[in-house]
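question for whoever is on the cluster today: can someone run the full assembly for these? two chains, 625 residues total. i dont have access anymore since they changed the login thing
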Amino acid sequence: MSEQATHQQPAIDDVMIELRGMHKWYDKFHVLKDINLTVHKGERIVVCGPSGSGKSTMIRCINRLEEHQRGQIIVDGTELTGDLKHVEQIRKEVGMVFQHFNLFPHLTVLDNCTLAPIWVRKMPRREAEEVAMRYLEKVKIPEQANKYPGQLSGGQQQRVAIARSLCMNPRIMLFDEPTSALDPEMIKEVLDTMIELAETGMTMICVTHEMGFAKTVANRVIFMDAGEIVEENEPHEFFNNPQQDRTKLFLSQILGH
Amino acid sequence: MDTKQFERGPDLPPPITEIGAIGWLRRNLFSSWLNSLLTVVVAYLLWLMLPPLIDWALISSDWTGTSREDCTSDGACWVFVSVRFNQFMYGFYPEAQQWRIDLIYGTLFLLMIPLFLKAFPWKTWLGGFIIFVYPFIAYGFLDGAWFGFEVIETTKWGGLSLTLILAGIGCVAALPLGILLALGRRATDMPIVKAVCVVFIEFWRGVPLITVLFMSSVMLPLFLPEGVTFDKLMRALIGITLFQSAYMAEVVRGGLQAIPKGQYEAADALGLGYWKKTALIIMPQALKIVIPGIVNTFIALIKDTTLVLIIGLFELLGMIQNALNDPNWLGFSTEGYAFTAMVFWIICFSLSRYSMHIERKLHTGHKR
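^ ran it for u. tokens below:
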């Protein structure tokens, strides 16, 4: 894909995710401090930062795997509160891919993909299986549909996990370090899948250390440290002309080796 | 520079001492000097003990006859068992009505066959029918009142058929109750539910089954209003179920704790609610992990059914005790107990093998 195409700002200006003055504590530990972030439809955001900086916690707040204590999170027009209806509504629209895949080991690949459409979206089984096969073809493993996750390689499992999320037809996809648990040989196949997904115009937030991915795919890169957003810029500027000393230090450490 | 291309080496056969019968012997019986010593000692003990046992039980034993006079040899007198066999199976259930028991167990057996056929499409419905509806039909049929047969009170039920009723109903009722208790005990966001479950589990685990049965039989009637009677068998069943469900709950909780947090999160992220998440994702995995523990509890339950003797229900062991009191058959307790042990062993061992088969069937490759 060309650099030009991926770096274009999305034309439609719908706000998909909005975090306003969001704070989170684990007991007394202040993990997220005054997070403000607006993500528009079709935007692809990469979040990076040192470990323990709160980047995973931030995206896990977006589908309420973690609860925030102050501020607002509005996803696709619905505000996340303690109201379970809102939470379920948002989770239907937000797909998530985890570091450790979290496939259901007792179900086949196909059943992993059809479970939520059948039970949450009330889709007939036949239709759910057709949808699942379509996405398994997109992630290039339709031939593994009847195997169990334990029989697949890490890269294949992560691609199944992506397909499983896509089967719910989400409007937003969250990626929580999707390649961190993979062998180097398998990182590329997962990143390729994510790049293809980006080309379809999916709204994406990726927590990742893959700076190559950030450079080619992201509209914006966010750098977090100690629970705060330190710097936010489009990738070219972010990598070539970082503003904050903390960002410069981080970049020199991850790009310098 | 002369660089040689890498070439793949050939696959060599393993050393002869590592494979086949010799390899098996070396690995399993003679892997160290201690192991070799133990092998020799055990072989010697078996040589000492097995021949006399086989001789007593099979070779110099009596199998046919009608009374103790027919037992002439030194070995076991199985005539005792064959003469009393009907009672050991049916208890005091009138002989003319025993076809009802045969029919109930035969039907159950036939109903269960489709459950083992791969192609049978209505397994869930049939399984549900067997577990939730059939016990009531069976009770009605054996008791007789609902169907207009001669009424045969539960006090007359007995023998192996009663053992299987107690064990079967106990297992079927204790598992779901145990699952609910285990879930309740883990419901940290519902402190009252959690407290109730903890108290329930700890209470029932803390008292011996024999006191539970005794209380249900002797104490409970004192608290019931005058004229209200509660079937003795029903009381025993409730006691056994509550008691075993507490054990089951802890077994299931062990399985729940082994499920990684990621499984809950993946289910949450897909939008599955609590009950769907539990029923579709968490429980199938947790129960699979604790199959050995569940079967362990089932086996303990089956053997614990013998304790109902204390409240005057004569299951298999009870019938044998009863027969041993017969003046005509004094002194044949060894045969009686050996027979009981054999029957229980066959039931429990089959269950254990079946559970291993299920474990293998449900194994879906390496865990992640």
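summary bc i know u wont read the tokens: The radius of gyration of chain A is 18 Å. Confidence is low (pLDDT under 50) at residues 1-11 of chain A.
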